[in-house]
Structure formats: C-alpha cells, structure tokens
Amino acid sequence: QVQLAESGGGLVQAGGSLRLSCAASGSTLSTYTMAWFRQAPGKEREFVAAITWSGRSTDYTDSVKGRFTISKNNAKNTVYLQMNSLKPEDTAVYYCAADAGAWGRLRRGLSEYDYWGQGTQVTVSS
User: Fold this and answer.
1) What is the pLDDT of residues 41-75, one digit of tens each?
2) Which long-range contacts (C-beta less than 8 Å, at least 24 apart) are formed by 70-74?
C-alpha cells in the first residue's frame, strides 16, 4: 500500500512560481509512473503531468507545457511539480497519483492510477 502526501500549495500572484512536493510512504516509487492531476471548482479532475519510474520520460498537458516541470527523486521517494509563470486558470486542487501498473508507460487516464494523495490547494490571483 502506498500513501501519498502533497505539500507546497498556497496563494501566489499571476506570474509567480510554486513547487509542489509529493512524499510517498509504504512503498518505493522506483517502479511506478507518477503524475499530477488538478481539479478546479465545478470542473472534472484533469491530467497535468506524468513521469516514468526512470525519470527519463515525461508528459504534459498542452496548457502547462513550457511552464511546469515534473521531476522525481527516487532516493527520497518524492515527486515534484515546479510551476512557473502561473496563471489564474491554474487555480485548482492539485493531486499526486501513482500508477503501479505502468511499467514504463506514461498514461493520462484517472482510472489508470492506483493511489492518490489528499490534494493541495493552489490559488493564483490576477
């Protein structure tokens, strides 16, 4: 069983930066694809970014390409999401998720992910 705990959310002005962290416990992340999703008020949860267990491959939704960077530190069992040039439309609860069955694949579907954190709020003011 994997437990995921996000941190690093907060209130920031448009154009600012935040770094989210996702700490895993209960199991190593070294073989899982890890991802960040987000859910804005009144909207469905959506894919943001994913990274393979090796860290060599990543995937981003179009709206964050060039602004967000996903990375991981297997030694620390932690995944990060560096968010730069934030926009008000980035406001959402951000969730970390782990795909135990990915085996090197990058997947965007919510149902592919086996473990989820509780989420951290990111609010970007204009």
Assistant:
1) 999 999 999 999 889 999 999 999 999 999 999 88
2) 70/34, 70/35, 70/36, 72/29, 72/34, 74/28, 74/29, 74/30
